[in-house]
């Protein structure tokens, strides 16, 4: 008998993830060609599973039919809110607010019709279809069909690579996305008098939701309090406004309940200001030269008036602290005060070139000097770790190696090393020290060794990578550090973006190579930034190397280093470059 995959998955959701799930009917096409069976059977009372979880025995009984589909209950029971996007524009809006700094920020599923389901931790956002155009919120009172449930025409729901619920946990919804959705929801709500037994449904007339009705009164009162407090309205005015609203509803609300809403709103505004102050402080650290306040809004994804006001207040506070000063006569333009000095002693040697060997003899283009850092930004499965391991194997007889791995440990690491054509177990054990480490690398850097970090997990505040790289460099003496970071598929730089370009003397990227844009033919390394040129007339910037990766560790170059574009080669050969 063939395996019932849907039953196996349902039991995994229930037993391994401790989720409340329900069975959904198999897909069925209506006269318009749409799936009209995204619901349980008619007599199935699913709402009870918003407050209790089914037993494994119930799950086994429900999913005996392999054509059944699995739905995960949204809301408090599973600490889950799902944003359902049915268009590329809706997807773009959500992804603009996702931190670019985490490899797999939150579970993401795709639907049979090409939609995207973003799984977040539960919020107080109400469930609402079309909260924005082609964007639904699945929250308390809703459910979401989950992989590997089937769709029409043999297609099904699936997890995006690296973003499955079996790989990552739902993150808290980003504050900027939360505020955007809350603002959009508020636009669709209008006020009505809360009379009992009112027969007219205002939704039928306006398409809007009803406010201040049973089940959402407390939430709406908080929304009013929050809107007033965050714009600077006095607490007494806010209290009186809430009391008038409550009286108009014809209901009694204890004074302490009104004050509770006000206190919650004040706390949220204070938290917002504290969080934005720290975000702005870190963002300013990464800036060079002058900048506009609006640039901080854009890069930090501040879209609401409250966020922008808190951002401006944070910048003015930094001016008072002497961190920033006004620049020129243009409004809203500031510059960072650069008052740190590092004395240069031109006749004091800082150490000679290190005899480091690079992939495909790239050392013929650059000098590897002490107290320097190097970055390799790679897409998933493009060979980033293979490059790091080969650099360790090629140089362990020249300099002590400290290898910090955030993914591979123990047997997994050993099973990969033995596949290398250069594997010498005795030499590896003697000359390379492997460590399990995923953060705070500056605390464990060996100042006089070749430190390899595979990889640096960039936090949601991706501008912090500049500080992390600076801290690592400051811990070096005669040693160096090679640091791997993740790069989004198709992006030019790693997840730290331009923030990771300042300190490294060499910045390379590695990604799959597709000459026709459709078929992958090996991988390619690209030099984005290179300093300490060996020959001042040969510019290593923009060089590329195509290679094949065999057995996950052996690198076979397809030719040598070459320029991706003809103009790059001309620049290198005929124009003397400048370097810092």
UniProtKB/TrEMBL annotation:
Annotated InterPro entries: DNA_primase/pol_bifunc_N, P-loop_NTPase
Pfam families linked to this entry: Prim-Pol
Gene3D superfamilies, A to Z: Bifunctional DNA primase/polymerase, N-terminal, P-loop containing nucleotide triphosphate hydrolases
SUPFAM superfamilies: P-loop containing nucleoside triphosphate hydrolases, Prim-pol domain
CDD domains according to UniProt: Prim_Pol (cd04859)
Domain (DNA primase/polymerase bifunctional N-terminal): residue spans on this chain: 10-177
Protein name, as recorded: Putative bifunctional DNA primase/polymerase
Signal peptide, first to last residue: none
């Amino acid at each position: 008998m063939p395996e019932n995959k849907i039953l196996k998955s349902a039991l995994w959701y229930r037993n391994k993830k401790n989720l409340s799930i329900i069975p959904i009917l198999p897909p069925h096409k209506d006269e318009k060609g749409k799936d009209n069976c995204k619901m349980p059977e008619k007599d199935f009372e699913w709402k009870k599973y918003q407050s209790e979880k089914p037993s494994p025995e119930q799950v086994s009984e429900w999913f005996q039919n392999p054509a059944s589909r699995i739905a995960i209950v949204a809301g408090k029971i599973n600490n889950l809110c799902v944003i359902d996007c049915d268009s590329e524009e809706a997807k773009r809006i959500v992804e603009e607010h996702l931190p670019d700094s985490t490899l797999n920020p939150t579970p993401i599923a795709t639907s049979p019709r090409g939609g995207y389901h973003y799984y977040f931790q539960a919020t107080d956002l109400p469930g609402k279809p079309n909260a924005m155009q082609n964007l639904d919120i699945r929250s308390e009172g809703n459910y979401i069909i989950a992989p590997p449930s089937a769709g029409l025409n043999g297609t099904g729901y699936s997890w995006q690579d690296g973003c499955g619920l079996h790989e990552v946990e739902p993150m808290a919804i980003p504050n900027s996305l939360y505020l955007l959705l809350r603002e959009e929801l508020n636009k669709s709500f209008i006020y009505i008098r809360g009379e009992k037994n009112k027969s007219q449904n205002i939704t039928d007339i306006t398409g809007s939701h009803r406010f201040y009705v049973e089940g959402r009164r407390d939430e709406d009162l908080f929304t009013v309090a929050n809107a007033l407090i965050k714009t600077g309205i006095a607490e007494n005015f806010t209290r009186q406004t809430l009391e008038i609203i409550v009286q108009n509803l014809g209901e009694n609300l204890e004074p302490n309940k009104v004050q509770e809403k006000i206190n919650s709103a004040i706390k949220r505004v204070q938290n917002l200001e504290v969080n934005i102050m720290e975000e702005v402080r870190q963002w300013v650290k990464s800036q060079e030269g002058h900048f506009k306040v609006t640039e901080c809004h854009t890069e930090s994804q501040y879209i609401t008036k409250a966020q922008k006001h808190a951002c401006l207040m944070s910048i003015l506070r930094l001016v008072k602290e002497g961190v920033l000063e006004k620049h020129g006569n243009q409004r809203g333009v500031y510059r960072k005060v650069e008052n740190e000095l590092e004395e240069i002693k031109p006749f004091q040697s800082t150490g000679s070139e290190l005899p480091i060997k690079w992939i495909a003899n790239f050392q013929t283009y650059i000098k590897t000097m002490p107290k320097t850092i190097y970055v390799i930004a790679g897409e998933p499965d493009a060979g980033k770790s293979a490059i790091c391991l080969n650099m360790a194997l090629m140089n362990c007889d020249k300099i002590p190696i400290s290898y910090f791995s955030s993914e591979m440990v123990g047997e997994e690491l050993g099973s990969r090393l033995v596949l290398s054509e250069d594997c010498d177990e005795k030499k590896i054990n003697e000359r390379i020290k492997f460590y399990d480490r995923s953060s705070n690398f500056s605390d464990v850097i060996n100042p006089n060794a070749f430190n390899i970090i595979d990889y640096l997990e960039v936090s949601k505040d991706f501008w912090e990578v500049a500080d992390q790289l600076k801290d690592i460099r400051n811990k070096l003496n005669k040693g160096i550090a090679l640091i791997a970071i993740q790069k989004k598929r198709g992006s030019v730089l790693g997840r730290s973006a331009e923030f990771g370009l300042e300190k490294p003397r060499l910045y390379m990227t590695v990604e799959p190579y597709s000459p026709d844009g459709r078929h992958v033919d090996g991988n390619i390394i690209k030099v984005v930034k290179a300093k300490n040129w060996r020959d001042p007339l040969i510019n290593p910037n923009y060089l590329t190397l195509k290679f094949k990766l065999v057995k996950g560790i052996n690198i076979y170059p397809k030719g040598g280093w070459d320029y991706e574009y003809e103009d790059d080669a001309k620049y290198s050969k005929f124009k003397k470059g400048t370097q810092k």
